[in-house]
Amino acid sequence: MAGRVSLVAATVLFGLAVRPGAVGPALLALAGLVMTIVAAGRTRRRTLELDDETTFLAAVLSFAIVAAVAPMAGLFGPATPLVESIPAILWGLIAAGVYLMRSRWTKTLTTWTVATVMLITLVAGVASLAQVRGVGIDVLFLHTEAAEALLDLENPYTDAVSVVNGSPTAGPDDLIIGYPYPPVTLVGYSIGEWLFGDPRFTSLIAFTLTLGLLSWQATRATDRRLLLCVLLMAAMPGWPFVLRGSWTEPLSLMLMALLIPLWHRPISSGSVWGLALASKQYFVVTAPALLKGGDARWRTRALVAVGVTLATLSVPLVIDPSAFWDAAVAFHSTTPPRTDASNLVGLLAATGVAWDPPFWLGLVAGAITCTLLSLRARDAPGLLLAMIGGLGVSFFLSSQAFGNYWFLLAGMSILVAAPWREMGSTGT
């Protein structure tokens, strides 16, 4: 892929922005956004003349070093090296081994390697969640109360869910009334609560399945770059931070990951695309990508995606449209700007400038960017790249954007950079 060096650079920049803070993470995210647009331009000019395997190795090592030296899991409760530092060192060593054994690498080694990566990820994830059981921010308690409301046959978009607002802009008595996420996320994280007693297990399972999808591709192909992509995803420094924070981007990332291998099956790809769009409100800025399918089946895929999205929203809209609107839309549109945001609001606040962007600015700018970038898209990775650009612009100009937002874009960038093998061109 032309511009792969730029895309891997964007991945690293987005991934390093997955941490608390305004100035540093915001500048990294902005640089990642610039590199995304460069990659979308399909430029063949490279500032570094590196082959793709060297590029991926450098990216994995950069993630591994940062995760080992500056782990963030301890920001949410207790943490041990098992959670982040030890796995990070292993990812770096494995990546170096894959790179150095080019001529002697086999599919058997690939199979054992991806199995090891997935096992370590699961063990570290379970250990991390065990250390912070019952400890979390307001997002965790929103998932928990929503799951309880569903079991009690109550509408979670009403005051059946009521959690203290943990935002620094909120007062001590301010509450979040109603579950502020769409039904896809509601069901996904409720299942995690019901089965494991902690909704964050949904994030862990979704992330592991994303790794599994890339791993499956790696075992079916002889391209070691796929294996390095698995390691790059696993090594992302902010992953334990996102997991413990209960943020829902891992579920959205898993759905986006399914879009590429299912692309030539319009009904299947349209279904997962619809679920992905319905998993977070900010995906509305990527809707223009539906109009640029890249192949002859785009109408079927787009219609299915729109139908699935509307179907997931129909139940709360029919039951109590006012409550759903207040919880899932009005709450977000009226949230005051966060001066600690990793975007333009945070950057300006650091210079003493207070800026309250209009709610529509990020949405319109993101949709326009997605539209322009999708004009050159010819396949699923191209459209995902357009969505990354649209989301990035929207996040940067919104009233708030944090590490979990940039985690999603880092993960999507890895999916686009991966040299996917065709999984079939017919069927549904």
Task: Explain what you see.
- This protein has 428 residues and is mostly helical.
- The chain has 18 helices and 2 strands.
- It has helices at 4-16, 23-40, 52-69, 85-100, 107-131, 138-151, 183-196, 200-220, 224-234, 239-244, 249-259, 266-277, 298-319, 321-333, 344-350, 359-374, 380-397, 403-417; strands spanning 162-164, 175-177.
- Strands 1-2 form a two-stranded antiparallel sheet.
- Helix 12 packs across helix 13 (298-319).
- The longest helix is centred in the N-terminal third of the chain and has 25 residues, at 107-131.
- Mean pLDDT is 91; it is low at 43-49 and 423-427.
- Rg to the nearest angstrom? 21 Å
Order of helices and strands: HHHHHHEEHHHHHHHHHHHH
Mean pLDDT value: 91
Care to count the β-strands? 2
Fraction in helix: 55-70%
SSE class: mainly alpha
Task: Quote the distance from N terminus to C terminus.
Answer: 27 Å
Oligomer: single chain
Strand content: under 5%
In short:
The protein is mainly α and 428 residues long. 63% of the residues lie in helices and 1% in strands.
Secondary-structure blueprint of this entry?
Blueprint: H1 4-16, H2 23-40, H3 52-69, H4 85-100, H5 107-131, H6 138-151, E1 162-164, E2 175-177, H7 183-196, H8 200-220, H9 224-234, H10 239-244, H11 249-259, H12 266-277, H13 298-319, H14 321-333, H15 344-350, H16 359-374, H17 380-397, H18 403-417
Antiparallel strand pairs: 1-2
Helix pairs in contact: 1-2, 1-3, 1-18, 2-17, 3-4, 3-9, 4-9, 5-8, 5-9, 6-7, 7-8, 8-9, 8-11, 11-12, 11-18, 12-13, 13-14, 16-17, 17-18
